[in-house]
Amino acid sequence: MLRLLLMAGRARRRNLLFVLILCLVGVGLGLGVWQLFLRPRLNFPRSETDYYMNDPVLGHKHRPHARRVFAWPEHKTGQIVMATNNLGMRQDEDVEIAKKAGTSRILVIGDSHLDGVVYNRESFANLLGTFLNQERRASAFEVLNTAAGYYGPDNYLAALDAYRQLSPDALLVGIYTGNDFLDATRFCESQLPDGLQRPSGYKSRLRQANERHAGAVAQLLNQACYFAVFPKMKSCAVGRVESLFKQLSTRCRSRDIELVVILIPTKWDVEPETLGSDFWQTAGDLKLDRAALAATGSMREDLARRLEADGIAVWDPTVVMRGQEAALFWARDYHLNDKGHALLATEFLKKYQDRLH
Fold first, then answer.
1. What does the alpha-carbon distance between residue 131 and residue 27 come to, in Å, rounded to a whole number?
2. CB–CB of 117/68 below 8 Å?
3. Dihedral over alpha carbons 308, 311, 316, 317 (to 10 degrees)
4. How far apart are CA 74 and CA 338, in angstroms?
5. Strand pairing partners for 213?
6. Helices 180-190 & 222-229, crossing angle to 10 degrees?
7. 141 falls within a domain
8. Residues 6 or more apart in contact with residue 20 via CB below 8 angstroms
9. pLDDT at position 136
10. Which residues of the chain have pLDDT under 50?
């Protein structure tokens, strides 16, 4: 009898706990409850917890005072050091929350391309800050690099709220057109009643291609493969990105923040002559021809037209990036290299200096 009473008592406690959880979910605390009982979901590989951390607004961001050192034979120093400051930004200097009087603060947000596979001093954001202050002959500009790997369009929308206390005067958003459209398809697929089923062999081919050339797959071929198999998703993906930027533009206008969108092209769009046989073999493994690879450029141009029609300042630097003597992307992983960052900063300054105040 005693055993039965104890079992009944435990059952009642379990039922009460279950009811309590349901009540908490009902009043909007469900996320907190699940975080108590389940292992938190990471928005980045678990192997990179030394460099990234979860964030309630952005999803994730860099850890403060993180540091990574990579051997990088293509760089003139033979290595790359990636370091963050007190706020987890790719800056060598710490940043105070309060903006100094007479300073124009510019936030740069984007994915790993603007985050930079370069030293902090070589990144688009840091170079732009240096150039702006040289042009004005005074340290009146503070350009902060808030970009991070694994970011996509939804993260860019969240950035304005995440860094609201910094009181930015301008927000520069870099869309990497080689995989950000793919990020947008998560929303598109969520709107389909039955989701979207990958054909047989789709995932295994991508895994094999990734083993051959991970950089090419991550920075271009994964997205190209998706839209080659699901061409009807192109319009939804571009529309989703446009919708997010329209929301971002509305928020920026309400806070008197200058918004400029930068459409970063791929290595294929800019310097296809530098692509080696390993790239073409990998593309062939995925059954991708030149027409399939060109789809990213068409989507980039479509987004540019839409944003211009929406009254959003947008810059597509593809034309000015073509025909350069030196390569602008690393051969190893297809990210922008130090020369690519320098060219972007130089050309952006020529076009938009007067809009930054």
1. 50
2. no
3. 140
4. 10
5. none
6. 40
7. yes
8. none
9. 64
10. 1-40
pTM of the full structure: 0.87
**H or E element in which residue 210 lies:** helix 202-212
Q: Which two tokens stand for residue 209?
A: 């291609």
Q: How far apart are the first and last CA of the chain?
A: 80
> Which pLDDT belongs to residue 147?
98
- Cβ atoms within 10 A of the Cβ of 305, count? 12
Annotate 88-121 with DSSP letters as a single string: S-S-SS---SSPPTT-EEEEEE-SHHHH-SS-GG
Question: What whole-number distance in Å separates Cα of residue 353 and Cα of residue 357?
Answer: 8
Q: What is the CATH number of the domain that holds 256?
A: 3.40.50.1110
What pLDDT score does 353 carry? 84
What's the rounded Cα separation, in Å, for the pair 338 and 328?
Answer: 7
Backbone angles phi, psi at 141, to 5 degrees: -120, 140
Count how many domains the chain has.
1
Strand ranges for the chain from DSSP E: 52-55, 59-62, 67-71, 79-83, 104-109, 141-145, 170-176, 258-264, 313-315
Work out the widest C-alpha separation in the chain, in whole angstroms: 88
Whether residue 83 contacts residue 62, with contact meaning beta carbons closer than 8 Å, is answered with no
Residue 55 lies in a domain: no
| pLDDT of 58 | 95
Report if residue 12 sits inside a domain.
no
